[in-house]
Amino acid sequence: MFVLAIVGRGAMGMGDVKVGCFAGCALGLTNGFLSLLFGFAAGGLFALVVLVLRLRHGKDVVPLTPFIAGGFEVTPMELPHYQELTFGLRVTNGKATVAYSGDTAPTPRLAELARDADVFLCEATLAQSEPPEERGHLSADEAVEAFEASGARRLVVIHRPDELPLDPGVERARDWLELEL
């Protein structure tokens, strides 16, 4: 665990190492390992139940933990999209960061998701804003507003129908687009 905490840079904290050492000393190596495995599984099962059954109140945010996938730290963030459960993602390798909005209504969480990212991939499906009670997508102006509030370095608008124009200074995603980070 100590090696994973040092080498993994964010995969596991030193608090996890201390808990693992305590469990190993108090319970023995086999039982300590089994208790940690059970703890991880129980935490994951609890999170899955909360997400699937939507055991939360009103517009509370479901707390999600960053995880490591393919050497990248991935941080999911719940975003509003009508009555559906949707997430934006913040992905980093420690040197470059990409934020991805997914489908979302306007929310201050977009600026948090894309804070200082190298690239912010933000949807802008609508020609104009929807009524407040029926929110699930952004207009181009709302995507630009979230981008400006985030401090991200580059905005690429995604999920935008070709027939809807964009201001000349706003970059639109296209098939086979490759971004250099």
Structure explained in plain terms:
- The structure is a single chain.
- It contains five helices and seven strands.
- By secondary structure, the chain is α/β, with parallel strands linked by helices.
- It folds into two domains: 2-53, no CATH class; 67-172, Ribonuclease Z/Hydroxyacylglutathione hydrolase-like (Metallo-beta-lactamase, Chain A).
- Strand 4, helix 4 and strand 5 form a beta-alpha-beta unit.
- It is elongated, with a radius of gyration of 20 Å.
What keyword list fits this structure?
7 strands, 2 domains, 7-stranded mixed beta sheet, 5 helices, elongated, single chain, 181 residues, alpha/beta, Metallo-beta-lactamase, Chain A, 20% strand
